[in-house]
UniProtKB/TrEMBL annotation:
Pfam families: DUF5753 (PF19054), HTH_31 (PF13560). This is Helix-turn-helix transcriptional regulator. Residues 20-76 form the HTH cro/C1-type domain. SMART domains: HTH_XRE.
Length: 284
């Protein structure tokens, strides 16, 4: 599993590594002694304790036996498996095609009542025009060495998924860094249509659209990685190499706290529309 310092999956792996390291120290064993008891090279112990590689269930059983902590085996195995399963490689997600990836989210979106979305990079999928979506998906596919022959279908499927924003029973709180309005994805016509679409969507009754100005003074929170919170059940974080699904309540609470701080820095209504119109003028 590739390691990213901003990944919740890596943080989870570090927690397992910390518990195993504590068990070794409490047993009064050096790294070399622990390795000898477990029957492997001491470098493996070091890699596990530094969260560079995740332990298998067998590794954990041997570790706990060596440190006289067999009562912690099942708990540690469960924690380790959770850490590893949190991390899903992007290639694995899209191996069935970009359109399949979009279709797979439709039912989940319909079951979600409250969407909280923060983006510091691109316009979120729910607010994208078809042209902008196609440009985003093309860039992502090329970067990851994936075929682009189904980009048009995937973009259309994303539009079908986005219809949830017009359906009853859902609320949307969406925050964009002002810089998102300035990053040119696609040509000028694509950008003009996309930014203009934000004006229309921002006026929907179920949508609260906030823009965090680039010139915001004394920021209460620095720009973060793009994340989505679905009700209080899931936080999805987009990284370069993978998408991380956060399901631990205390971690979701941290993303909720971050969203609230960012929301306090945003402007809404006429002020937000002024920033959007300013971005449209900048295209010309």
């Amino acid at each position: 599993m590739p390691v990213s310092p901003s990944s919740s999956a890596h943080a989870a792996r570090e927690a397992v590594a910390g518990r195993l390291r504590d068990l070794r120290k409490e047993a009064g064993l050096t790294i070399v002694e622990l390795a000898r008891r477990c029957g492997w090279h001491y470098s493996k112990t070091s890699r596990i304790e530094n969260a560079l590689s995740g332990p298998t269930a067998t590794d954990i059983r041997k570790w706990c036996a060596a440190t006289h902590a067999k009562d912690q085996v099942q708990d540690l195995i469960a924690q380790s498996l959770n850490a590893e399963s949190m991390y899903r490689e992007w290639r694995h997600k899209v191996r069935s095609g970009l359109k399949h990836l979009q279709d797979g989210l439709v039912q989940f979106y319909r079951e979600t009542e409250q969407f909280r979305i923060y983006s510091s990079t691109v316009v979120p999928g729910l607010l994208q025009t078809e042209g902008y979506a196609a440009a985003v998906l093309t860039i992502a596919a090329r970067f990851h060495g994936l075929p682009t022959d189904d980009v048009a279908e995937a973009a259309h499927a994303r539009m079908d998924r986005s219809r949830v924003i017009h359906e009853a029973g859902h609320r949307f709180a969406i925050l964009l860094e002002e810089s998102v309005l300035r990053y040119q994805i696609g040509d000028a016509d694509v950008m003009a249509a996309q930014i203009g679409h934000l004006l229309a969507v921002g006026g929907l009754p179920a949508v609260s659209l906030g823009i965090i100005p680039m010139e915001a003074h004394e920021r209460a929170q620095w720009p973060e990685e793009t994340f989505h919170i679905y009700d209080d059940k899931l936080a999805s974080v987009e990284l370069v190499s993978a998408s991380v699904s956060v399901t631990q309540p205390f971690e979701i609470a941290l993303y909720s706290k971050t969203f609230d701080r960012l929301r306090g820095m945003a402007v809404y209504g006429a002020e937000a529309r002024a920033l959007i119109l300013k971005a449209i003028e900048a295209l010309h």
